[in-house]
Amino acid sequence: MDITNRPEAERVRVRLVERTYSDDEQNLIISTYATPDGRRYYRQERALTTFSGAESGTPVARTVEGSNLGRTGDEDRERYAAEAARMAARYDPDDRL
To answer: Which of 9, 12, 11, 31 is nearest to 20 (CA)?
Structure first.
């Protein structure tokens, strides 16, 4: 079964598709993860100061509750799908960048 067609309450594997830095004084790193088909996304914000120690870096994959996923706009869907495929081919799910 395609994981993107499962009920919202189930857990879904998403891959990192975009990482940006906030322009304001909060020093946030915004990581966007997407489903393999690029139709749904998960966004996480982390303070730059949390990138030290054993948990430093950005996970290349996450498993999240389906209810925490947003719907990707048409303008980003293909790009997210392509980047999710590239990340899946290049990195193991437990790798960090």
So the answer is: 31
Give the whole-angstrom CA distance, residue 72 versus residue 16: 14
Domain boundaries, the chain: 11-90
Is 85 in contact with 38 (CB distance < 8 Å)? no
Per the CB < 8 A criterion, the answer to whether 83 and 18 are in contact is yes
Residues in the chain: 97
How do strand 28-34 and strand 40-47 relate by DSSP bridges? antiparallel
43/93 Cα distance (integer angstroms)? 17
pLDDT tens for residues 39-55?
999 999 887 655 555 66
Total-model pTM = 0.80
